[in-house]
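Reviewer comment 2.1 asked that we show a complete input and output for one of the modelled complexes. We chose the zinc ion case, as it is the one discussed in the main text.
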Amino acid sequence: MIVALVFIFGAFIGSFLNVVIFLLHRQESFIKGTSKCLFCGHRLMPLDLMPILSYFYLRGHCRYCRQPFSKQYPLVEFFTALIFVLVYLHVFPDPNNSLFSAKNILYLMDYWALAAALIVVFVYDFKYYLILDTVIWPATVLAITVNLFLGYNPLHLLYGAIIGGGFFALQFAISRGRWIGGGDIRLGMLMGVILGWPYILAALFIAYVLGSLISVILILYRKKAWHDKIPFGTFLALSTLITMLYGPALITWYWSLFIF
Ligand SMILES: [Zn+2]
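Response of the prediction step:
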């Protein structure tokens, strides 16, 4: 039951993130009305604004002007809902017997907020090849504050930030900014303060494995060429989410491959 409620809540957050991504790109403020069709400006009714469902109910078109909506909308809504459920199950592994405490709830809120920020980074870098400082900095402050409050070793956070940021700063220096941008350095630092040492290493490793696999698949299917730009922030955001949820399990599994 609670899992279903969390899924619905996550779907609405996903719908909100779509609006955030749109407004960040247009550099508009939130004060203007947002429940309008982006093409014809017609006011949308509650039935048109149901996350995930409306896309199918309207068959992917605006009811008023018939312009097709981007598949980004239902996809972001669905995956935000899914990730919100996975985060909930990470904090409360037995959803029928959740032991709520102030610490647990703070941890849940923190992880939900950071997951939302990473979803925005994922989509935005994928669409526009840009990692937004307006998302990275607040998320960094939040991650440091909550992690310290929850009793995380400050040194492990510092090592995480140095490794995450340093790894990309080094590549930036070697390539004189050709391989990666400054946004990757700041995203690396954010990963470090979310995950800390040693999980930052796992996240970087996963990002490179995913990045190489998906690039090869895209090149094989001729969707991209070797010299094409790859939105690496997308892979970093995904690997951070995976490590947040499954870091310890993945590290145990990885070592078990070498120890017989
Ligand atoms: Zn319309």
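Residues 102-128 form the longest helix (27 residues). We note this here for comparison with the apo prediction described in Section 3.2.
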